[in-house]
């Protein structure tokens, strides 16, 4: 059984050469998917967001950043607010599925989504890289290079890089299970009893949102 993935979009021929001030702006990574810093989602940037057709925003912050990283346009855009620390020991894998569901929901309805943290370098970049890995079936290094060609300053912390490298096996296993018939799954459980326990633990760990705070973006 071969998993079929869509091809990655080619880099736009008219894309600008990267300049240092562009780190304060958002860049379009995929058609309809933008990555940037909080400065690209501040109140003063509303005209730019509207011009680009943004409809959804993933706002990444930890509690101590809530006073200065805010969902500023709750009446205009749909928000997903994630409580993630830019810390190598932070379990960021648990946020990949909810982010992918949110981004897919936006793109499938013709919307456009901005993913931002504070600087648009580590946390938000890791989520966009994970999205590209799972959507297009590419490895971490290829997804990283693809994103970096569009936003040169990305630099996920070492812990996030390790988790992204581990994530390849996780999403491939999930996709394989989804594609298998109940009979095939039953045979796999019979033939490989040791493996399924490991997969079950992986899924439980990823889907454990007990300590995750995905809010409805209350103004703070």
Automatic annotation (TrEMBL):
It comes from Pleurodeles waltl (Iberian ribbed newt). Belongs to the protein-tyrosine phosphatase family. Non-receptor class subfamily. Residues 25-173 form the Tyrosine-protein phosphatase domain. Catalytically inactive phosphatase. Gene3D superfamilies: Protein tyrosine phosphatase superfamily. GO terms for cellular component: cytoplasm; nucleoplasm. GO terms for biological process: negative regulation of SCF-dependent proteasomal ubiquitin-dependent catabolic process; regulation of ERK1 and ERK2 cascade. This is Serine/threonine/tyrosine-interacting protein. Pfam families: DSPc.
